[in-house]
Structures are given as structure tokens and as C-alpha cells.
Design goal:
Blueprint (H helix, E strand, L loop, with lengths): L2 H24 L2 E8 L5 H13 L8 H4 L3 E7 L11 H9 L13 E9 L11 E9 L2 H4 L9 H12 L6 H8 L8 H20 L38 H23 L6 E6 L1 H7 L1 H15 L9 H7 L5 E6 L10 H11 L1 H9 L3 E6 L6 E8 L2 E9 L6 E4 L9 H8 L33 H9 L4
Parallel strand pairs: 1-4, 1-5, 5-6, 6-7
Antiparallel strand pairs: 2-3, 3-4, 8-9, 9-10
Length: 469
């Protein structure tokens, strides 16, 4: 980064901090980032969180509610007029209609503001109610992966991704195309063919359960589709790259992608988060096999390396941006397991994210891990297999609508039984298979004053924002 770019970023950050300083002094603002990989349930999490903060009958573990300190909660226009509003009403309608369905996945950055009127307590109880604003920021999971590219050169990225896809069945067509372009001179149609083939491979890998699929914008390009910044692909480095050859131009476009796409996203949105929830569909990764689980571990470590956790004072916030004070790692779809296995799921999640979590702990951020279901879609049942009783769950299948029971498998109490084979490149689990079904949302009959049914969403909210309420 040059001196001019650094100065511009510093001026931008100072301007944004000063403009919001007076509001923050009188009406505190909490910026909560909701992040995770694709299909981890970000949209459902935000919709249910907002539903349950507006109607708090199911939020007994949120202490401000249990103690009667929340007088009212309401939606307000978000402060940033350039960011789309999170479509809470549309997503809630999808979950609660006569034929409930899961809402569409995140397609772009969006934001929503909730305002709390709080009854003061302690020495402040005679000062009258105060306001606290909660700004919830939603990011596409695909874009998050790009944060790990910030410290990589084009060669390092190319070498890394090519080594990870070598030997995978989905990559055979890609490597056939790649073998025909060694030391090629620059040609725009060829560049488009390579970029398109790489995009197709990323889509196939994601369907196979892989997480580390970069560049993330290739899967969700939006208005940038077809631009040079999104028309590149990984290539092995020639011994002496030609100055106007294919490799050098791909390298230039990779750097343009980082500076024109990734860096502004990081600067304008991601780097200003106060609290963060990282959603992980660990059950799907386990079901997809050791390679998918190891790929998820690596992807999450790279993403969380972009956080700047820890506590900072007013001056450091104005000059360097906020520090993430609390990070919640949440294993989603806990309703796909009987509650007796939830503790094991949390243990596996903690081990899976140990590298990233330790980095955050060391920097001073408070972290927690828990198993949640933002919207509970199943009920628990007991199945009989001969003389054995099996603790399972039952719900309505998303594909057919029929009611089915599922036993996901017996998760190990020792997470190394999963993580070690994953790190060693095992082709499958030695001691069992793990099943995953896709259940549809349950038909809701909500009582007035109650939000959507969930598992531990109130505990998640207490950890993320409870101290500031």
C-alpha cells in the first residue's frame, strides 16, 4: 500500500468516525457483523434475531429482558443511505407463510437498524430512559473468503489453490484447459475462457461441500461481471514470465481485484465491526467428508485473520478503526441433532476453529462457541432399532414435504477423531457416516409477543450485546 493510499484511507476513517461521534456519545451504537460461509444460515439468523428482539417472549436468557430493563424495541431506517436495507419483512414472510420456506441467500451487503429504549438502573435510574441502537450488517459468505487474499501475492494464491484442487474429479476439465496454455501470450478470449472455467470449478467445488473457493466474487459478481478485475484465473508461474504475457496480466488483474474490490469492502464495512457472529455449518462439512472439514478449517482461519480483535480507546477508534470486542462462533442447524449431542458439536467447533479463536483470544477479544438453531425446524423423537433406542429428530423435508425422522450419527466426544483424519487427507471416516437432511421450516402458530422458535438464540444475543444493554 502506497503513502497516498494510506493517507486517503486514514482521512476516510477519521471523517466517518468524527461524523458519528456525537451520536455515539449520546445514543450508543453497536455494529454487529453477521458472517459465515455460504449456506451457513446468515439470512435466517438475522431474521430470527430481529423477530425475537421485537417480540421477546422466547428471550429468557437475555438478561436485559429478564430484568425488565427493555421498555421497547423498534425498527428504524439504517444510517447508511448507500447500503441496501435487509429485507426483514420479506424474509419473515417466507418463514411464517402458509407454506413456509427458507428465504433466499444473501446477494449483497445489507443493513438493518434496531433501536432499544432502555430503563436505566443503578446510579442512572433517575436520568430517564436512554436509547441504544443496534446496526446489523449482513455480508455474502462468498465475499468473506476474499479477505484472506489481502496478504497473498498472485503466485502464492495460484500455488495454493492449484495444489488444493489437484486430484479432485471436479478439476479434471480445468487442468486439461490449463495444460494447453503454458507460457501463452496474452489473449483476451483466452483469459475469459480461463476465468469462466475457474468460476465453473468453484461452483462445482462448493456443491461438493468445499468452503475455500476464491475469489469469492466470481460466484456472486453482481454489477462487476465481465470486468477485467473479475477476469483472471490461477496459473503456474513460468520460469521467466514475459512482460506482456498471460501470467503477468493475470497477476496485474489479481492485484487490481484486491485493491479495487476486496480492499474497499474491508475498509468501508468489515473493519468497522464492534461485535461479530461467525456462523459455521459444521454438520454439513462433517457429512461431506474429511476433505470438506479440513477445507472449512482452513477457510475460517484465513477469514478470521482479517479481524482486528481487542479493545481500543476513543483515539485508536478514530485513527485505526474499531476493534472487535466479542466474537461468537456458532454452529448452526443444532436442531438437526438431539440435544444430547449439542455439547459434542460445540467441542468439535471449538477444535475446528482453534487456530483462529486463539488468535482472537490473544489479542484481547472475548470469544464463545455454542450450538444454535436460529429457527427450529424439528422436534425430538425416540426411534427403536430392535432393542436399542435412538435419539433422533423429526421434521418436514424441504424437497418433498413429507415428514421424516433423522439420526445424524453419533458425533465423537473427542474431536481429534474427526480433525486428525481431515488434516491427514483421509478419503472418508473410518468409524461411521454422518447424515444430513434438509428440513423445511415448521408451520408456525406464533403467540402474540413471541418471535420465531429457536435454540439458544437468546444466549447468543446475551453474549453479543447483553453487556451494552
Amino acid at each position: 500500500m502506497g503513502v497516498t493510499e494510506l493517507a486517503q484511507d486514514l482521512a476516510h476513517e477519521v471523517s466517518s468516525r468524527v461524523s458519528g461521534l456525537s451520536e455515539s456519545l449520546f445514543d450508543p451504537v453497536i455494529r454487529l457483523g453477521v458472517t459465515g460461509l455460504a449456506r451457513a444460515g446468515k439470512t435466517v439468523f438475522i431474521t430470527s434475531l430481529v423477530s425475537n428482539l421485537l417480540d421477546r417472549g422466547r428471550m429468557s436468557q437475555l438478561q436485559a429482558e429478564a430484568q425488565g430493563r427493555i421498555e421497547a424495541v423498534w425498527l428504524q431506517p439504517q444510517p447508511d443511505d448507500t447500503v441496501p436495507r435487509f429485507d426483514f419483512e420479506g424474509h419473515l414472510g417466507a418463514l411464517t407463510g402458509p407454506a413456509p420456506r427458507w428465504p433466499d441467500s444473501t446477494r449483497a451487503v445489507s443493513e438493518l437498524r434496531l433501536s432499544f429504549r432502555m430503563r436505566p438502573s443503578g446510579l442512572l435510574k433517575f436520568t430517564g430512559p436512554r436509547k441504544v441502537h443496534l446496526d446489523i450488517i449482513d455480508y455474502p459468505g462468498e465475499w468473506l473468503l476474499d479477505l484472506g487474499l489481502m496478504d497473498l501475492s498472485y503466485q502464492a494464491w495460484s500455488d495454493g489453490v492449484l495444489s488444493r484442487v489437484t486430484g479432485r474429479e471436479e478439476a479434471q476439465a480445468w487442468f486439461r484447459l490449463l495444460s494447453a496454455v503454458e507460457d501463452a501470450t496474452w489473449d483476451e478470449p483466452l483469459a475469459k475462457d480461463l476465468a469462466g472455467a475457474w468460476r465453473d470449478l468453484l461452483a462445482a467445488l462448493r456443491l461438493a461441500g468445499m468452503s475455500d473457493v476464491t475469489p469469492g466474487r466470481f460466484l456472486m459478481p453482481g454489477e462487476m461481471e465481465g470486468s477485467p478485475a473479475l477476469t483472471f484465473a490461477p496459473l503456474p508461474r513460468p520460469e521467466t514470465p514475459a512482460s506482456r504475457g498471460l501470467w503477468r496480466e493475470m497477476e496485474r488483474r489479481f492485484e487490481a481485484y484486491k485493491s479495487r474490490v476486496v480492499r474497499p469492502f474491508f475498509r468501508d464495512h468489515f473493519s468497522r465491526i464492534d461485535r461479530q457472529v461467525v456462523l459455521v455449518d459444521a454438520l454439513q462439512a462433517i457429512h461431506s467428508g474429511p476433505a470438506a472439514l479440513e477445507d472449512m478449517r482452513r477457510a475460517m482461519a484465513a477469514i478470521l485473520g482479517a479481524f482486528r480483535p481487542g479493545r481500543g480507546g476513543i483515539l485508536s477508534e478514530l485513527l485505526l478503526g474499531r476493534r472487535v470486542e466479542r466474537i461468537l462462533f456458532a454452529a448452526t442447524r443444532a436442531d438437526h441433532l438431539h440435544h444430547s449431542q449439542h455439547a459434542r458439536l460445540v467441542t468439535i467447533l471449538s477444535a475446528l476453529l482453534r487456530e483462529a479463536k486463539d488468535r482472537a483470544d490473544f489479542a484481547g477479544a472475548e470469544t464463545a462457541a455454542m450450538a444454535i438453531a436460529a429457527v427450529r425446524a424439528t422436534t425430538e423423537v425416540e426411534l427403536q432399532r430392535g432393542s436399542d433406542s435412538i435419539q433422533a429428530v423429526q421434521g418436514r423435508l424441504a424437497d418433498t414435504g413429507r415428514v421424516a425422522a433423522m439420526y445424524a450419527g453419533d458425533l465423537p466426544s473427542d474431536p481429534s477423531r474427526l480433525l486428525v483424519p481431515a488434516r491427514e487427507g483421509a478419503s472418508g471416516w473410518l468409524d461411521g457416516d454422518y447424515a444430513v437432511m434438509r428440513f423445511a421450516p415448521a408451520i408456525q402458530d406464533l403467540v402474540p409477543g413471541q418471535g420465531l422458535p429457536h435454540i439458544r438464540l437468546d444466549r447468543a444475543a446475551e453474549f453479543l450485546i447483553g453487556d451494552l444493554l
